[in-house]
Design brief:
The complex is a heterodimer of chains A (117) and B (302).
Chain A (H helix, E strand, L loop, with lengths): L1 H38 L3 H14 L4 H14 L2 H14 L4 H22 L1
Helix pairs in contact in A: 1-2, 2-3, 3-4, 4-5
Chain B lengths: L2 H19 L2 E10 L10 E10 L6 H16 L3 E2 L7 H11 L30 H5 L19 H7 L3 H5 L8 H10 L4 E25 L5 E25 L5 E6 L2 E6 L6 H20 L2 E10 L1
Parallel strand pairs in B: 2-3, 2-4
Antiparallel strand pairs in B: 1-8, 4-5, 5-6, 5-7
Helix pairs in contact in B: 2-8
Classes of the chains: A mainly alpha (117), B alpha/beta (302).
């Protein structure tokens, strides 16, 4: 019984990184494709790809950052806010994510002020 | 292999390496901010005219109508009706003289001089699609107002100096029958009207300015210094009122306030100050009617 538990533990330890690496690799390919199409102005397709990317790997800060930008481009401010929050929480030291978030907040605040007026 | 081809290969290799290592991409984005008002029921807009005052140096009624029409033409999806500018101040003065009782605001519309409304009335659906579908941009008939008291616009405007003076004329905006009639004449557009007060302003007091200083070694430093200054400029207070041309009811109104001050020695023409101030007001005005896109850049990460 004890032997079986040890085998399971060893198997989990051995395979977990590869499963994680697979998820990150698939997610990364979605992110890269999203960047390519976004650069060509196909923002809906790009946003779809980044949605897939965060589904595949919810710990991928860059994917959340790109998804937030995609939502921002579509005018979906609430979704963008949530995605930026995730990106910042996952990678708080990333200055580029912070910079994007600050620029977004400026526009979001302006839109809110306008609607409140 | 020559030195030149070796350099080309090396630079190509470097380029490939750099592009492979790039983990971020700056992209331009356009963030849309949706319009405050739902104007989907309208295809055309009539900037009718404004009750203006403050200074005689600028015909704020005419200039505001011209500016708003040109902005709406290029930055909104609505077709702009080209019509004569209504001398609203005269019309309002005339109305007040002839029928003071009729000027009482009906229920559901803001009273004269009331604070700007923040609520937007629901827009009923377009009643006659045939009329609006092929509606010409040019009005088929001159508005009733044109045959009214058009003469001597300066006489009434000269009397409007302050916001208090404006209040006397504001009952015209609550006159549903008047606006409905104008709406009928122009085939039920969205009507933009309101008041524009453009007043000269003078003030004096202490102002903090940064003064350049050089020490004995020639080192430069900037020191804030408080100096007493005489300044003059202008204050622009426009109130935009959006009226449903089908019913004559006010849909939305918005008051703004902008001011600019110059050094008293500086001689800035009133008209250029007016345009400088209107430049600040226009984005908010357009944002009421149409979705505005804010351009910027973001960084996509790999």
């Amino acid at each position: 019984m004890q032997f079986r538990a040890v085998v399971v533990m060893v198997a989990l330890t051995a395979f977990a990184p590869s499963v994680y690496a697979d998820a990150r690799a698939s997610s990364k390919s979605q992110v890269e494709f999203g960047i390519k199409v976004a650069q060509n102005g196909l923002w809906k397709e790009a946003t779809y790809r980044w949605q897939k990317a965060v589904e595949l790997d919810p710990t991928y800060a860059a994917a959340w950052n790109n998804l937030a930008i995609g939502y921002e481009h579509e005018g979906k401010f609430e979704e963008a806010q949530k995605a930026y929050d995730k990106a910042v929480a996952l990678d708080p030291k990333n200055l580029l994510i912070r910079q994007n978030y600050d620029l977004f907040k400026e526009i979001n605040d302006r839109a809110k002020r306008r609607n409140d007026r | 292999m020559t030195a030149r081809s070796a350099a080309t290969i090396a630079s190509l290799l470097l380029l490939t390496t750099v592009s492979a290592c790039t983990n971020f991409f700056e992209v331009p984005i356009e963030t849309p901010i949706s319009a405050k008002m739902d104007v989907s029921a309208f295809r055309r807009v009539l900037v009718a005219g404004f009750i203006s005052g403050g200074t005689e140096d600028v015909d704020a009624n005419l200039e505001t109508v011209r500016l708003l029409r040109s902005q709406l033409r290029s930055k909104s999806g609505l077709r702009v009706i080209e019509a004569e500018v209504l001398p609203l101040a005269e019309m309002a003065a005339d109305k007040a003289k002839t029928a003071p009782a009729a000027a009482a605001p009906p229920a559901g519309t803001p009273a004269a001089g009331a604070p700007p409304t923040t609520t937007i009335a629901p827009v009923p659906p377009l009643p006659a699609p045939a009329a609006s579908g092929s509606a010409p941009t040019q009005a088929p008939a001159q508005p009733q107002a044109q045959s009214g008291p058009v003469a001597a616009p300066a006489t009434a405007e000269a009397k409007i100096r302050t916001e208090k003076d404006l209040e006397k004329y504001q009952s015209i905006f609550a006159d549903v029958a008047f606006w409905k009639k104008i709406g009928e004449e122009y085939e039920n557009p969205l009507i933009v009207t309101g008041t524009v007060l453009f007043t000269p302003h003078q003030t004096s007091g202490f102002v903090t300015r940064n003064i350049e200083q050089y020490d004995q070694l020639g080192r430069r430093s900037v020191v804030p210094q408080r100096t007493y200054m005489e300044r003059k400029g202008f204050i622009l207070t426009p109130k935009f009122i959006f009226i449903d041309g089908r019913t004559g009811a006010t849909l939305h109104s918005e008051t703004m306030h902008e001011e600019i001050l110059y050094n008293s020695q500086q001689n800035t023409p009133a008209l250029s100050s007016y345009f400088e101030l209107m430049d600040k007001v226009i984005p908010t005005f357009l944002g009421t009617l149409s979705t505005q896109k804010i351009r910027g850049t973001r960084v996509l990460l790999r």
